[in-house]
Amino acid sequence: MSSNKTITRIAATNNAPEPLFGSVAGGGRASNDKVWLWGDDNMLPYLLSLMARRSVIHRRIINDKADYIAGKGVAYNDSIPLLGDIVKHANGSGESLRSIIARLALDEAMFGNAFMEVVTDAKHSFLSFYHIDASTCRLARDSEHVVMHHDWRNYRSSEACTLPLFPSFEEQEDGTLRSVVHYKDYEPMFSHYGVAPYVAGMGAAAILYKTDKWNIARLDNSFQLSGVMMLDGAVGSEEEADRMVRLAEERFSGNPGQVLFVLRDKAEGDSSRFIPIDTSADGDWHSLHEQSESDLVVAHSWFRSLSGLDYSSGFSTERILHEYEVALNTVILGEQEQLLEPIRQIIGLVLGTDASSLEIINRPPTRSKPLYMRVWEARKADGLDYDENDPDQQLYLAQITKYNLRSLE
User: Fold this and answer.
1) One domain for residues 32 and 157
2) Taking the model in full, what pTM does it have?
3) 264 and 208, same domain (yes or no)
């Protein structure tokens, strides 16, 4: 197949916003009891999603990690126009390849699993890539198909869709050939699904959420002391006692539950009194929050400065650049290669085009030297030997950057 072939941009072949809802040729082939459960109750993705929405630090790390892995764009060999078409328009919806990779990276950072649908036809006249929400996917018992449903809490086989796992393709009713690539983070003893990289830090993420929730409760109570209010009063019935307690709550507690009111028979003299609950352990709660924050960063195999956790103690450009360089070589490049490898393989298989030049563009979050500085000026600033008259050192730093800003267009 010629390498200068132009990709055909087609609209999604269904009326639904996501391809998985419209690929109904396989709908209903797998029931809920014929899939490998994702978690004990098949609801683990829902739990992980909820945790990511509630725990502030946990969500920030997931977002930043996915952003760094997605990079700033995708570079390719300009002499192969077909690659440029795929990079700019990865599917009929007009999404770029970078946007697809960004969603896959987010799913993998959150769930340890990600799914991508591949669409073509028997003539290989076009190729489209679609991201699939990982929470909607389950592996069929035959381990050769993926079953997709929009709500696994209320599964209906008539609303489900089944597609084969790559490298198998199956023809659908609309004439397309479709397949699903399953990305998963390896974990011993787990053969069907990957495991989220932060699995050892789930307790730390829960603690961070609960300490935040505790602070919100204190704020709702206006930071007033909690305690027990003993009230003396003569009442003739349980109904009257309940009425008096409710009136006391509305009048004195400010927020029901802040103070527990207890009504007892009136004794000689008035012995009503307030018994405060000691909250002297505030410092322990703060230490617990900080310890959990550090543990969670470690569990994610990530770095504090790359998630903005140390900005309060000063903005250190050198530390950020150093940690970014470590993250790039230990985490980011490996994850990027894992995401790109199947895409390159599929482009070669379907379109017969060499896609080895596809690379994700990485840029540090900050620069120690401006791009308009000349090479000899940069060497001078670093204390290295320099030659102002050397033609190579007359170049600007922007000129020797592997991918300049034009690569992002």
Assistant:
1) yes
2) 0.73
3) no
